[in-house]
Amino acid sequence: MSLTTKEKELVSVGASLAAGCKPCTNYHLRAVRKAEASDEEIERAMSHAIAVRDNARKIMERHGLKLLGRKFRRPVEEDAATAGSTEGTTRIRELVCVAAAFAVNCTSSAEKHIEAARGVGVTDDEIQAVVDIARFIRGKADSLCCKLI
Fold first, then answer.
1. What is the CATH number of domain 5-146?
2. What pLDDT score does 87 carry?
């Protein structure tokens, strides 16, 4: 099975948000609406992507503090989209989470969500397509920021 236009655009919205690219988010939000995604589907994809981004930040904060010989003082509270359980996992959730993980370079989240995606029947070709989308968006976000200089 290949990705539908709606799936590609939901993934693109998630990757755009995770990468922190407003112009990309604007573009893909218009495109996902044209692909006839519901507001609920869009909001769910946005929530999953932001949860992956937030989890990546926590992982790196803990890593940095560990290198300084300090402990992470706040309790770790993971969002349902990034928690270890794959309960409630859906194809689109995992596609969006894989894209978001690659958009923020979070290898631990990428590994977890690739495994979960395979568990719900996502093919390696589809995973590669999602990764390619995320890499493209991350590159666009980088190039837009570089134009500010």
1. 1.20.1290.10
2. 55
Residue extents of the structural domains in the chain = 5-146
Taking CA atoms, 146 is separated from 28, 85, 142, in Å, by 21, 38, 6
pTM of the model: 0.85
38-59, pLDDT tens digit by residue?
A: 999 999 999 999 999 999 999 9
Residue 111's pLDDT is 96
User: Residue 18 in contact with residue 98, Cβ under 8 Å?
Assistant: no
80 C-beta neighbours (distance < 10 Å), count: 12
> Rounded to 5, what percent of the chain is helix, strand, coil?
70, 0, 30
Q: Report the Cα 53 to chain-centroid distance in Å.
A: 7
Instruction: Please write down the long-range contacts of 59-65, taking CB distance under 8 Å and 24 or more positions apart.
Output: 59/106, 59/108, 59/109
